[in-house]
Design goal:
Helix 6 links the parallel strand 6 and strand 7. This protein has a ten-stranded mixed β-sheet with strand order 3-2-1-4-5-10-9-6-7-8, with helices on both faces. Helix 1 packs across helix 3. It contains nine helices and ten strands.
Length: 299
């Protein structure tokens, strides 16, 4: 792994749930392989953020009473991590305020942020579309969403799958996919989905077939170009390149199993709440049966 990343921790968000603990264990495995430290983060909701300070004015003991179970969540998760990874350098912290805000702030110096499928909310788990989506949209580093129905930390990953679309949005995804493949010692499957241009109905059949063959050839060439430099940098990573006609999200979902890791790029323009995720990355974090790494590029 590049030395530039060694000093940046893997950040794992926890909320006391078993799915979050599973994600933290997966994050610990990742930190070990990338030679990073692990930081466990829990966000203690600030009622004033949701209701206004006047509505929640009360004794300071109330806030302190909430911090005690928060500290316990962090401590117990750290102990669980050390049971499985005794040599890992792990730390923990409790932040006050919205979970997404705390994680976005941590992401400025993080190698990756790892979340379970359920974000931390004041009233418990609500939807993936709240905390996790906000973090994916606004984080300064790649974000990993781990599915709760997978024993991530105890599974043997089969391969890394990366979506390649030939634009700057997928450049970071390709880079991180090669890094992960090298760290886990796994083969890499680079997938490019392409859509055929509309063919006029009056085209002869032979001309239509020629047009499709040309587009298929161009798609394969683009995929090779997007991965060639990284193959030179990581010669030990075995790469399979697949160019397939169809929708990117469905193609990647069809190829992903619970033992894979899928890496995709995504846009993200600002900190406003909104559907900034591309349809491919959004489909994957909701439906993929395996950990999904979203590499967002601001702009």
């Amino acid at each position: 792994m590049d030395e530039d990343f060694a000093e940046h921790p893997i950040v794992a968000a926890v909320d006391g749930s078993w799915s979050a603990a599973q994600a933290a264990l997966w994050a610990a495995d990742l930190a070990t392989r990338l030679h990073c430290t692990l930081e466990i983060v829990h966000a203690l909701p600030n009622p004033g953020y949701y209701f206004g300070e006047a509505a929640v004015a009360g004794p300071a003991e109330l806030a302190e009473s909430g911090r005690q179970p928060a500290n316990r969540i962090v401590t117990e998760t750290a102990e669980l991590v050390r049971e499985h990874f005794p040599d890992i350098d792990v730390s923990g912290s409790v932040s006050t305020g919205p979970a997404a805000q705390a994680l976005i702030e941590r992401s400025k110096n993080a190698r990756m942020c790892v979340l379970g499928p359920n974000g931390t909310e004041m009233f418990g788990t609500i939807l993936l579309g709240s905390t996790a989506i906000l973090v994916v949209n606004n984080a300064h580093c790649p974000v990993v969403i781990c599915r709760q129905n997978v024993e991530m930390f105890d599974s043997v990953h089969r391969q890394i799958i990366v979506g390649v679309d030939g634009t700057p949005l997928s450049d970071d995804a390709v880079e991180h996919a090669f890094q992960l493949a090298a760290a886990f010692g796994l083969p890499l499957v680079a997938v490019h989905a392409w859509q055929a241009d509309k063919i006029e109905v009056h085209y002869p059949i032979a001309e239509a077939r020629k047009s499709l063959a040309t587009e298929e050839s161009e798609a394969a060439a683009l995929l090779a170009e997007c991965t060639a430099g990284w193959s030179d940098k990581y010669p030990d990573v075995v790469v399979t390149r697949i160019s397939e006609r169809g929708g990117a999200a469905q193609i990647l979902l069809n190829r992903a199993s619970s033992n894979d890791i899928v890496v995709v790029g995504s846009r993200g323009r600002n900190r406003l709440i909104g559907p900034l995720l591309g349809s491919t990355s959004q489909n994957l974090i909701y439906h993929a049966p395996c950990p999904v790494v979203v590499c967002r590029r601001a702009g």
